[in-house]
Amino acid sequence: MELNELWFVVIAVLWTGYFFLEGFDFGVGVLTGTLARDRAERRVLINTIGPVWDGNEVWLLSAVGATFAAFPDWYATLLSGFYLPMLVVVLCLIVRGVAFEYRHKRSDERWQTRWERAILIASLIPAFAWGAAFANLVRGVPIGRGMEYVGTPADLLGPYALLGGAVTLVLFTFHGALYVALKTLGPIRERAAAQARYLGAAALLLTGGFLGWTQALTGGRWSLAALAATVVALLAALAANRAGREGWAFAFSGAGVAALVATLFLALFPDVMPSSLGERWSLTVANASAAPYSLRIMTWCALLATPLVVLYQGWTYWVFRRRIGTRHLAVSTNP
């Protein structure tokens, strides 16, 4: 395997980690508007992700940074073509981070409610946008001479892209519901498990249809195998949730998210950004990569830094592993 192919795999792994971890973050944010019945329950939902949400975003920074360093032409074309939707996503992530920190700075109920509503909106929009963005990557966008994006924002809103956005939105919310069932006590836990049944069925139907469409567009035998793994993982998550095995249900939904990302990257390879105007304009692993020397330096840096990051994040989840409920709010210092 060449170094540019290795870094394509590394970037796929980084996006998998981001969607697995930030996926349930987004899902919990969406559930603050559909699962919680009062402010106390919204606080419980937010507190389940409070210690980990910012660490989960490290995977996004790593994925974008790796793309910039390993495939600078891919990074340049992607960010110029997807500038408007990516700007919206970045603004949502900023607002979401501020909302987590500011919601408890004042005791005024209206102040807190507004920031909690901001968490809901700033979770829902990126959850949809990431799926639409990756759908456009796989299907192809207008790229012309000089690796320049020559389309308009309207070109990013086709039926396939909208379906991709719906898939990630529903799948992340399902993943988040299983996380809430795993992390909470009492009525919230029971309602989260109940909502997960419906969300899981919707995620299975949407994901199956979307990946079937993807396979028809540009799939091969490996992407077909990943498609089958996605469906099996989601079915297993539904079965485990129905059986009350919350840890297994969450693990299987995470496996479904990972298999979805694998399917998209396998369908994309060896392109990194195909052109809808013709194959000769497509960006590939070969023509969009950095120099071999740069890739070698990056590989050594990744080998040294990645274990430390994974160990630290694993330790964080271990420390904050216990379930919480509304009864714990009485001893909390955060309103």
TrEMBL record:
Q: Taxonomy-wise, where does this protein's organism fall, top ranks first? A: Bacteria, Bacillati, Actinomycetota, Actinomycetes, Kitasatosporales
* Residues spanning the membrane: 6-36, 82-99, 119-138, 158-182, 194-216, 222-240, 247-269, 297-320
Compartment list: Cell membrane
Q: State the superkingdom.
A: Bacteria
Q: What is this protein called?
A: Cytochrome d ubiquinol oxidase subunit II
The record's section on InterPro entries has: Cyt-d_oxidase_su2
Per the similarity annotation, which family is this?
Belongs to the cytochrome ubiquinol oxidase subunit 2 family.
**What keywords does the record list, in alphabetical order?**
Cell membrane, Electron transport, Heme, Iron, Membrane, Metal-binding, Transmembrane, Transmembrane helix, Transport
Protein topology in the membrane: Multi-pass membrane protein
